[in-house]
Amino acid sequence: MNRTNGGGGPTGVNLPALRSHNAALVLDLLRSAGPDGISRLELAERTRLTPQAVSKITARLREEGFAAEAGHRASTGGKPRTVLRLVPEAGHAVGVHLDRDELRAVLADLDGTVVGERRVPLDLGAGAEAVLDAVVREAGTLGRGAGTSLLGVGVALPGPLDHIHGVLHRVTGFPEWDGFPLRDALAARLGLPVVVDKDTNAAALGLAVAGERGSFAYLHLGTGLGAGLVLGGTVHRGARTGAGEFGHQVIQLDGPPCPCGNRGCVEVLCLAAMERGDVGEAARVLGESAANLAGLLDIDLVLLGGRTITAAPEPFVHGVADVLAARARREGAHEGPVPVRLATGGARGVAEGAAQLLLAPVFGWGVG
Amino acid sequence: MNRTNGGGGPTGVNLPALRSHNAALVLDLLRSAGPDGISRLELAERTRLTPQAVSKITARLREEGFAAEAGHRASTGGKPRTVLRLVPEAGHAVGVHLDRDELRAVLADLDGTVVGERRVPLDLGAGAEAVLDAVVREAGTLGRGAGTSLLGVGVALPGPLDHIHGVLHRVTGFPEWDGFPLRDALAARLGLPVVVDKDTNAAALGLAVAGERGSFAYLHLGTGLGAGLVLGGTVHRGARTGAGEFGHQVIQLDGPPCPCGNRGCVEVLCLAAMERGDVGEAARVLGESAANLAGLLDIDLVLLGGRTITAAPEPFVHGVADVLAARARREGAHEGPVPVRLATGGARGVAEGAAQLLLAPVFGWGVG
DNA sequence: GCACTTTGGCAACAGCGTTGCGAAAGTGGA
DNA sequence: TCCACTTTCGCAACGCTGTTGCCAAAGTGC
Fold first, then answer.
1. Which of A119, A216, B92, B354 is deepest in the core (most CB within 10 A)?
2. Which stretches are transmembrane (chains A, B) (predicted)?
3. DSSP label at A129?
4. CATH superfamily ID and name for A91-204+349-363
């Protein structure tokens, strides 16, 4: 019931839409309850629906194979509550992470658990045919393990792109991909639904689904510097799905030139500091830009990831946290500073998040 | 049906919720159609509900006095469509703009049309009692003109505050307001619902309701520099309703000190340039920070307002647009640069937006 | 004047969550 | 061992939603 559905403005809600919304909501609560499960009455409390409505919804979900009973809780003086859990095998998705020099693909179940993985070297600049062949081969191999429960394939890769239409804009450093309709090309060859997104957005989605609540920014420092934003539990992609251009935020007017053409971008300052071996300065620069972002959007959390960060996490986490703490102290914040943490997921986080591009909609994420 | 309702996570939807959502949606389309009105079949297309459902909804709205028939369209070969319109007098709200030296209050009807206005000098530092007295007096006077159709009073003022609880944090320059529960104090004395928000958020809401579609940033340059963000048609207030801290974005590492304690904030750079009489440099600095924001969030539009800007709009609009155009060109954007315009509404925009804090929820804005 | 098109209300309907109620399945005291 | 009590949860009836089938109303155009 939000105001941003589809392209034609907010839309009306009829009974089938209401039904699928509530079913997805219950399914999401089953998922986030994990292996411990959750009782019908708890579901009723959380959804603010009546227990009887929850009973009907869970009965349908059990009939369709998405949920199952899983034991009982201890009695509190009456009939003990029946515990329900998600059936993870009811759905799978393949997540593909296309990096500059490597293809990493995972097969994940509804729970997000990785049940299959493949890694092969890859040259993103080797041309569309070669890359498409590799994706079709690896995704196909993994997907066969899921049978008919395979929902589709999610692909995450660097650089600006059109998430809605699945068309690449500029994969930084590989101009030959400019304008390539990756989603449709892959969907035609795989015969499956395909969703394409930026690597940073996929990683952020994966973190949100994995349990990071509220609003946060995932900052990725590797070959370049980018961000994935989650605002109110939803990945913010912006009007033309180009949000997250964090690296080319100018924080030093008339500073050193950046390959992008601007002067004083965070990315060039941060990477230059790294080349000098000055990790402290790189972290400070990153912290200042993170503080700009945090003040502008009032987020709950900053998560750091990417090869450069995972190589030496502590100085970055502390350096960024110090800047945020100093700003919060100076501005007399009523609440503590925004916490900074290392992103979980590691090197496989982007591929797992890519799988979530297909899995998350099952739980009502990002579909209204 | 979004995932950010209330405090306890996303909630289920039952039939009453579905009904009020669809009714609000139809009411919103009636409002945005303006005096020309809109036909039932057009409403059905826009809402994606069936014509019969729209007929039932509009019949209820007419019964309740919110909608009325207003003539017919020309025939296209069959029975001509009946045109429906909003009845603006069915609801009113008072909007109060508390500025440092002035109180401005308006009475607006459902259409947003101002049907009453009052302006009195005010010293925000004169103490809570004096300010509350003034608000109660002016809002009461205006509100009596609306009778029982008065929905409540919206109050907009500068400085960080807690929008959800209606408690002020720090009204910049007036520490005596720190922690003051403005909403509850006013609601008790007025006997009406009261909503409190930052002046920039109110102005942004007013612009969104007035017809600015999609996502945009409203940048306000007056005594200070702040922003109101509208993302996907909704005012973005952030986790602790503190979003929009645009003025203390650092764009010059180790730059000149700002009263806030940081160095190189846009606000201090921009205001210093204005004091030197260098409007061009002020506009360039504003433009760089606006470009940072536009790249990060991928917004559709930048709107400029505030006393300093309305005093000399052209150099600012052009200066900011130039920076955005230069960045878009250098980054090889596939679409044109983000347009920059002067915000409509002028000096009364904040007060009108404050009234919309009560009116907009009638049309389903920001309530899920 | 008649055939046709288009609008929009009436009535019956399927399906949603809700309410009323009772069976099932425990606890705990006599 | 029995019985009163508590708590869970499904069945059945219900109210209300949007949907479908149908037809009267109100125009156009030959």
1. B354
2. none
3. H
4. ATPase, nucleotide binding domain (3.30.420.40)
